[in-house]
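Subject: design request, 587 residues
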């Protein structure tokens, strides 16, 4: 017994202990990162992730890392070699403690200083993105870690990481996965604290010196979203939650007990509820993705792409629940709910890829060039939003509104929110177990397959039918998809038969400028295209196969498909129950 106790103590003493520090330098050139490893392995391999959970594309993260050096306790340089573009191997030379230092930041890039919802550093603030900042010790991702932030005087720190009792700048993470899933806002920002379902929440807002007008309306929006989503599941799976809003580029990214959301100062000034949709989407990810997840999405392999056929569920059904949450919270009216889904149905019906690329296929090929699907592109967000809606209607119809998609989500939380996620077949089985009805045929036709959806067969359950119309619109259609590698250019989507396609634009071309507007992300594409009027000249600068190319055409016209959900003239009592069930909390 004594020998066993000694062996256990010895094993604990030899476990690597990880202490990170992040320093904001005076010149704001990059984050200065230090990792101290006590009891390092004889071969200590450090890796910077090649992708980030929630963003399914490679990052070429080696570009972010500079000046890597490893030191002994005496300050002597230790042998270090790069065994891949994203990993470094250190020989500790028997030392019981080593220190690794490096810089993290695109120092020579203007984009690095431009605020976005992920990662930047400027004179008054910064966001620390874990996957781009923290290397992990290979083989020890589940080891606990601590991190200290050294910031300029007057700066504060906001993160979902657990604070320590040692000081206000040091935080603890039970594993590397949690460490990098907890973004950090540094700087001078506004804080709005509130309670939702008895749990502490806060919004921290950095608008680069600007202020959000009508903060009461802004906070009320977040409180309603949080309370409504928690009500679906019955309780919050965290002790506190942090919404991080940053003035700059739009979009958002979900995390374990926080989210980062990009907004413009004007958005919050003109409309304090302008970020309601992205806020509801990212917050619902607390459950769907961060707890309820496809089996492939954890434990994470950060070195290689990770594919799953279930992103339509993880992202698209989350989009549907954003619609549901806003309606149930009273932030959107029933008419807003119907109109939003009608718009999505119209967009779906307008895209010929709906009959060629299934939701499982679009999920699986997110890492790839559009060429793998013959240059047809359709969003698994859009597909999943509509499939979630139809599945909810079908479940309610088959059970007389006794069961719903909410019951499926709660079942998944109970069975697949632990160490192991769900497979495709287990997802189908979960729907059957939660509702008592088999939806294998639904999956075969509309999830694994790309069969035309008989909309009215589903919509009449809630007293609707759909009316499709076509109306002339300006044909300057240029869509966009994210780059295959973060940091590269966004890529074009040329709609089949569009004026852009006839002029030579190809899906997959790297977008540089549209009518002189630089393309940094999809927002620039949308803004540029929206400004194009009838018969206007359109100039698109792209890179194809490594060579610059300019494409010119005149905006024409095309018949755009629109959809409207129309109330049936004599809805039954069951239809009214189902319609009401969609739009109100049921617990």
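Subject: RE: design request

Done. Sequence follows.
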């Amino acid at each position: 017994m004594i020998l066993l106790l000694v062996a256990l103590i010895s094993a604990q003493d030899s476990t690597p202990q990880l202490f990170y520090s992040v320093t904001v330098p005076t010149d704001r050139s990059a984050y200065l990162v230090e990792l101290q490893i006590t009891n390092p392995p004889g071969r200590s391999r450090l890796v910077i992730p090649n992708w980030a959970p929630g963003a399914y594309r490679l990052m070429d993260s080696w570009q972010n890392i500079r000046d890597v050096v490893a030191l002994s306790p005496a300050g002597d340089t230790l042998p270090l070699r790069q065994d891949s573009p994203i990993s470094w191997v250190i020989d500790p030379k028997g030392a019981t403690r080593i220190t690794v230092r490096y810089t993290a930041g695109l120092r020579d890039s203007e984009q690095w200083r431009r605020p976005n919802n992920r990662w930047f550093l400027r004179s008054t603030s910064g966001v620390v993105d874990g996957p781009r900042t923290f290397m992990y010790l290979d083989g020890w991702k589940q080891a606990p870690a601590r991190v200290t932030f050294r910031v300029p005087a007057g700066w504060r720190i906001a993160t979902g990481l657990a604070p320590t009792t040692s000081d206000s700048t040091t935080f603890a993470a039970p594993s590397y996965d949690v460490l990098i899933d907890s973004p950090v806002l540094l700087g001078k920002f506004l804080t709005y604290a509130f309670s939702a379902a008895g749990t502490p929440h806060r919004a921290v807002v950095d608008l680069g010196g600007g202020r959000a007008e009508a903060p009461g309306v802004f906070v009320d929006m977040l409180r309603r979203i949080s309370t409504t989503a928690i009500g679906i599941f019955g309780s919050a799976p965290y002790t506190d939650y942090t919404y991080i809003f940053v003035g700059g580029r739009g979009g958002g990214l979900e995390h374990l007990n926080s989210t980062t959301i990009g907004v413009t100062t004007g958005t919050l000034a003109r409309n304090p509820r302008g970020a309601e949709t992205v806020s509801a989407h990212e917050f619902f990810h607390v459950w769907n993705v961060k707890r309820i997840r496809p089996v492939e999405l954890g434990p994470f392999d950060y070195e290689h792409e990770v594919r799953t056929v279930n992103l339509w569920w993880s992202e698209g059904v989350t989009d549907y629940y954003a619609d549901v949450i806003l309606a149930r919270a009273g932030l959107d009216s029933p008419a807003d709910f119907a109109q939003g889904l009608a718009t999505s149905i119209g967009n779906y019906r307008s895209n010929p890829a709906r009959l060629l690329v299934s939701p499982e296929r679009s999920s699986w090929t997110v890492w790839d060039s559009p060429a793998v699907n013959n240059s047809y592109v359709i969003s698994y967000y859009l597909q999943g939003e509509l499939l979630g809606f139809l599945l909810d209607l079908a479940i309610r119809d088959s059970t007389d509104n006794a069961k719903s998609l909410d019951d499926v989500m709660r079942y998944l939380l109970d069975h697949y929110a632990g160490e192991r996620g769900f497979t495709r077949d287990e997802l189908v089985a979960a729907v059957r177990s939660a509702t008592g009805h088999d939806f294998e045929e639904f999956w075969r036709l509309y999830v694994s397959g790309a069969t035309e959806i008989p909309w009215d067969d589903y919509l009449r359950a809630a007293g609707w039918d759909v009316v499709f119309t076509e109306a002339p619109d300006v044909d300057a259609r240029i869509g966009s998809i994210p780059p295959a590698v973060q940091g590269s250019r966004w890529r074009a989507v040329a709609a089949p038969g569009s004026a852009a396609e006839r002029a030579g634009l190809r899906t997959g071309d790297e977008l540089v400028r549209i009518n002189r507007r630089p393309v940094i992300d999809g927002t620039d594409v949308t803004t540029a295209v929206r400004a194009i009027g009838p018969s206007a000249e359109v100039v698109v600068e792209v890179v194809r196969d490594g060579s610059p190319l300019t494409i010119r055409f005149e905006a024409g016209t095309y018949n755009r498909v629109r959809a409207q959900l129309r109330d049936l003239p004599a809805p039954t009592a069951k239809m009214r129950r189902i319609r009401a069930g969609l739009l109100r909390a049921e617990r």
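The longest helix spans residues 380-399.
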